[in-house]
Amino acid sequence: MRCPFCGHAESQVKDSRPSEDNAAIRRRRFCTECGGRFTTFERVQLRELTIVKRSGRRTPFDREKLVRSIAIAIRKRPIDAERSDRMVSGIVRQLESWGETDIPSSVVGEMVMKALKGLDEVAYVRYASVYRDFRETSDFAKFLTQEGLNEEVEV
Q1: Strand order in 50-52's β-sheet?
Q2: pLDDT > 60? residue 153
Q3: Which of 7, 61, 105, 148 is the most exposed place for a label (fewest CB within 10 A)?
Q4: Average pLDDT, stretch 38-56?
């Protein structure tokens, strides 16, 4: 494993243990060149997934991109990192067991929205506003009314 500090190609594993949700192996590493210490996570990947964008462009599935988009939605919300990680792991497991290697981006977006709705309504609306490309306050009002989140929305 390449050292993130000095770029040296080799490091030693000092400790390995399962992550808190048992979905990964957490490894503490030590760089033999600069002495830096860092942590890596090793996860099981059932198959290579490809995301098919609305434009038809295809990109490899990136778990970290999913983590970042959810982190933006839940920022400054009372949601601990462990719950967020469990949610991401659940979405990834659903995608891997979906049966197809080519997955439309809309499927991923809907899975995230469903998971966020059960986790935190504010994070759900934040994510939906970007995913559904809200342009005006009336878009928010319409969405909130359709979802039954607020019956008395005025713009």
Answers
A1: 58-60, 50-52, 102-104
A2: no
A3: 148
A4: 85
